Amino acid sequence: MEHRRHSIAMWLATVVGATGSVAGALLIQTEIGFKSGCVRVDAEVAGVREHEDGDGDGDGDVHFYPIVRFTTPDGTTAEGESYARIHTCRPPDTISVFYDPYDPSKFRVDPRTGIHVGAILLAFCGPAAISACGR
């Protein structure tokens, strides 16, 4: 019975490690593609959405997500919420954003964030999968 539990644990570690590694590699590839074709522009902070983690009793961490508005060189105005947590900006501050020139609704405050997350996934999941396969 112990051998069977060990085999299941190794199989799960292999699957989770391999899945995390593939996800990390795809995230890095996607973000590098975005970064290589994106355009930098200054955006106005039009608002900030606050979100509290936790059970709502006031003890959770509060995160701030800026809502930005910018105009592309061809006159297209885009507005949306950034998924980057920025604690220091408030309307009417100006921050830099990077957007896809073919679809300005796709933008990032920092296009390196996805690359960093992908690298972390690879750093932890890759060795886990390799270690599990080697047992």
Q: What features would you describe in this structure?
A:
The chain has 135 residues and is an alpha+beta fold. The chain has two helices and five strands. It has helices at residues 2-37, 113-133; strands at 39-52, 62-71, 77-81, 94-100, 103-108. It has a five-stranded antiparallel β-sheet, with helices on one face. The longest helix is centred in the N-terminal third of the chain and has 36 residues, at 2-37. The radius of gyration is 20 Å and the shape is flat.
Descriptors:
five-stranded antiparallel β-sheet; single chain; alpha+beta; 135 residues
List the helices and strands and how they pair.
Layout: H1 2-37, E1 39-52, E2 62-71, E3 77-81, E4 94-100, E5 103-108, H2 113-133
Antiparallel strand pairs: 1-2, 1-4, 2-3, 4-5
Helix pairs in contact: 1-2
What's the gist of this structure?
The chain is α+β, with helices and mostly antiparallel strands and 135 residues long. 42% of the residues lie in helices and 31% in strands.
